[in-house]
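INFO batch 0412 | record 1 of 1 | parsing
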Amino acid sequence: MKRRGFFSIFVGLLLLVTLLSPLQVCASSRTLTSPYRILVICSYNYSFVTVPQHINGFIEGLGDVNYEITYENMDAKTYYRSVDIAQFYHYLSYKMGQVPPYDLVILMDDTALHFGVNYRNVLFSGTPMIFLGINSISDATTAAALNDVTGIAEVLDYESNYKLMQDIFPERDHIVILSDASNTCTGEYIEFMKFAANHPDLNYTVVNTSYYSTEGFARTLEELSDNSVIFCLDFSTDGSDKIYTQQGAAAFIGEHAPSIPVFNPSAANFYGNFVGGYSYSYVDAGKKAGEMARGILNGTDPDDYPFVTSAVSKLSIEQGAMDTFGIKYSALPDDVTIVNERPSLATFYRGHTLISNLLLLIFLLLLTIIVILIGFNIRRHQIINQDFLTKVPNRSFLNNRIHAAKDTQTTYGIIMVDLDNFKTINDTLGHTIGDELLLAFATRLKALTDKDVIFGRIGGDEFMGFMPNPTYEKADIICQKIVQTMSAPFHLSTGSIEITASIGCAMYPQDTDNVMLVTRLADQALYEVKATGKNDYRLFRDTLKAKRS
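INFO prediction complete | emitting tokens
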């Protein structure tokens, strides 16, 4: 009997578990493999410029989470009345009744935040919420104080923009705040007034476009002084109920205030004379919200994520505005992004730093090699063509000039110079003093080198002068100068020495029609001087005359 009783109890429990299992499955729509369900409520629609930026950043921040997103747009730029909000509630309430509950709700911009907070208990009870793009800090702070609610306020970086304005436009000291009466801009205006309160010397004017007709706003822009800078918070409508896109707003401002630079601390705008500045980065804010969402879906308590009130901004400057207002790249901070930047070596370097540095290193190595080779060739040329002692041209150099003249049958002349009694000086005073004398004599000959003659040392105490395009008159003058330069004593380490030189000169074709004999004839003229007392010069022509007489 006991065994039969235990068996009955076991069967009863098995039946109970079997009956309760479907109920448990129905209680939760998620399984371990099903995606997390995320509801994104946007204040506007996807065509509004900031919405896709927020969404793209949010998806990037989610990373590899398994999710599916439902987007619901309030389109509050058009449908902002209380009756419109009520209709949106009924519409959303109906849809949510047809689908499983959501795991997370994302609220984008102020109107969506108000809706989410007001209808939380009815539509989203127990569901974590993340908000972003909220201009009203007070509304965002109130929402963040709720359980399971956190997010990111849209804090504009007025401080950085003000400093940037002072740096690049030091002559402009008047800020014109452009805003409208939208919920978004009201929060931005309040935050600006807090900034202004911390800068009592700030010179500013607030222009609310919603209070001006189209014509009146145009006149206001045209009357702005040249010391002004516009901070455009938001300009989507005017008092004539005219709606402006970002591009349309920029075109209107550019038409009526073309000489006034425009900073846009909120959404980045690079049309017309909009310079840029430190603009709120919707992509980066969306990414932060996505990272929060990933953590919450993976089990982190939403209240563990602090409410973000620091500015999420990026510095961007438009190239065309830089050209228009004469802004130098060197005056901008290092973290700047130049929009529509013209290609240049500087832009290539900034965009490809590693490759650029590698190319620069290769260039410097090649340049170093080239300089070394040039220096080597110069040194090699000097070794080949320069006398090692006196540093004047050597026999090889002079022979090359002679051979070139011979090959082309070009007129040339040779002056042979020989120091008188140099062997005696070498033998009595030593080779060191002899070398000093050769160097000093070469220095004097080098001073005589010009377009008419090039002097060099061909060995020992023998020197040669090569004359391109010679004449007897030129030869006579050059030889006289050599004799004259020998008249002054040479001051050496052992004292002063007086020495003379014997000089002979011959020319082609004046002295011979054989281009090969010029050097020999110059030697003959020199030997004639040696034979007749030294310390003189002789042209070969004069040697012939003397023999004939």
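INFO post-check: The first strand starts at residue 36 and ends at 42.
INFO record closed
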